[in-house]
Amino acid sequence: MFSKERLAFLERINPLELIEKISKFRRLNIAMMTPEAINKAIYDVLTFEDQFIYFTKGSNYPKGTLFFRARKLDSSVFPIAELMYEPHFWNAPAEFIKTYGRLNKPGESLLYTTPGIPEITLKEIKIPDNSYYALMVYEATDDIKVNLIGQQYNYEMLGIQSEKIKLINNIFNDFLKDEFSRDVGEGTEYLYIVSELIAKNFFDLPPRNIQDASERDSNLRKTSSIL
Length: 227
Fold this sequence. Notes:
The protein is α+β, with helices and mostly antiparallel strands. It contains seven helices and six strands.
């Protein structure tokens, strides 16, 4: 259940004005903007009266859940220099991160994994057909709390009856879903600046209480690697 003040806040938002803000944002030339200017544009879309109200949706991956990560390979000949030692199976060192990712900036190393469905990680890094890759499998050593972005809502279960509030939240939700599922190609990684800034400024919630970081020493352990 949500407070009356929170619901009343959303009722005051004009959906047409919100849609126009998003349309204006879509017309921006992100390639020519500084991160500071992009961040300001994001705030213009997501905040009203200097506040951001969005129905966060949490979930939980239980201990034992398998997570997957893939790396492209040039051949199937062993041994492979890039996969000789355990650190090679985790996130790349920061000095090798030259471009933006969905949640990271250059020089920031994060471990990206996919829970349960290995095919998704292959699609994410665009593994070509009939090519070689290594698939890393990690097992959660503890329950992992996650904050879901861009998921569907059951408003009845949330106790929300107002059609306007549903509409406003859906508009926010669709905007966020589009930004976090954006298909970015080589050379246009700068487009990830948007999702990286949104994640850091709006969804970096307290660890352990609301969500867990995917730190290898606290949540995951490698179980295998497969060609």
